[in-house]
Amino acid sequence: MISDINNILLIKYLRNDLNEAESKQVLAWLQEKEENKEFLFGLKEAYMLSRWKELQQQSAVSQGWDEFSLKIAQASPSKRSTLILSVVRYAAVAVIVFGLGFFLRGFSHQEPVTYNVVKTASGEHSTLILADGTKVRLNENSQLTYPSSFSRHFRKVSLKGEAYFEAAHNKKKPFLVNTSVYTVKVLGTKFNVDAYPDQLYVYTSLKEGKVQILDNSGDSKILSELKPGTQMSFNRRTGEYFVKEVELDEIGDWINGEVVFKRKTLQEIADKLEQKYGYTIDIRNKEISQLTYNITIENEPLEEILSDIHYITPQVHFSVQLDRKTVILN
User: Fold this and answer.
1) CA distance 36 to 49
2) Quick one: pLDDT band at residue 111, thresholds 50, 70, 90?
3) What are phi and psi of 28, to 5 degrees?
4) Residue 113 exposure: Cα atoms within 13 Å on the Cβ side
5) Beta-carbon count within 10 A of 207 CB
6) Cβ–Cβ < 8 Å for 223, 213
7) Residue span of the structural domain in which 21 resides
8) Residue 181 lies inside a defined structural domain of this protein
9) Residues 128 and 200 reside in one and the same domain
10) Is-contact 159 147, C-beta < 8 A?
11) Quick one: 219 and 269 in the same domain?
12) N or C: which end of the chain has fewer CB within 10 A?
């Protein structure tokens, strides 16, 4: 019985396309058993037989083919039958091997996947429908990268910034959103992902259905499973995360031109204001960063929002540097 060997090596041998390391592998395999040598000889003869028209145009190989044909003609009837049967048997093996070779060659020459990138600027939103019917609403200063067509096994996109997804249901092909720190996995649901690269926390909020949060460190372990009305907050710096309940009407509220803050800290509000208005907000007094607020922001000027915060909590003072687009809170 012949020993196992990678069929690709045999194909490359017949095509005279082996490198030095691969040649050593084939040589070692030939030396293992006599059956291996017989197999490769028969395979080579079958390969030549399958290419006889082409080989007839090449003098050196044509001569070898003539010798092989003469060998058959001169052989006794019983030996001739054995030789022909041997070639036929190896020809059948060659069909299998070359069938695999052509399959792999066809697979390796598939058209490469092309990716689309959609970006939004400050104050700009974008809505798009993906190839599977998933609806994505992209918030300002955000970027979505997605393939022109999804693979057979999953539907994967990458997000920088914030987006609200209405993922089309497909039980056999999960929808995946890569945020760089973790991946959101769903089968079909409505959820919001807030993953701006310059903010400390990444948030995923679930409105309908169920989602899994998968670790991106390599083993894809499940960090958490969310149910409707919950939000996971992930600290980029420490890797710590926690899940809390949120109001359903808060999830994706920016779609309607407003942002609702309920029991949000001043630090969380400052992060959102930075994204919305393009200012850097520096909280000099760390004690006030944990003050909590219930406010709704629409499209009013930044200074008006800061004035409202000062009115609610007089201990919070602010100054705005227009030329540097900076806000200082102390």
Assistant:
1) 20
2) low
3) -65, -40
4) 13
5) 19
6) yes
7) 7-108
8) yes
9) yes
10) no
11) no
12) N
Between CA 312 and CA 296 the distance in angstroms is 13
Which tens digits make up the pLDDT trace of 296-310?
888 789 999 999 999
26-84 pLDDT, tens digit per residue, is 888 777 777 777 677 666 666 555 554 454 555 444 455 455 555 555 555 555 555 44
- Cα-Cα-Cα-Cα dihedral sign, residues 186, 191, 196, 201: negative
Provide the 10 A C-beta neighbour count for residue 21: 7
Pinpoint the alpha helices (H) of 140-298. Answer: 266-277
Q: Quote the CA–CA distance of 139 and 244 in Å, as a whole number.
A: 23
Tell me if residue 202 falls in helix, strand or coil: strand
Q: How many CB atoms lie within 10 A of CB 194?
A: 24
User: pTM for this one?
Assistant: 0.59
Residues 230 and 133 in one domain: yes
Please check whether residue 2 lies inside any domain of the structure: no
Domain count, the chain: 3
* 142 shares a domain with 266: no
The SS3 assignment for 152 reads: coil
DSSP-based three-state secondary structure for 146 = strand
Query: Could you report the per-residue pLDDT of 211-232, keeping only the tens digit for each?
Result: 999 998 777 789 999 999 999 9
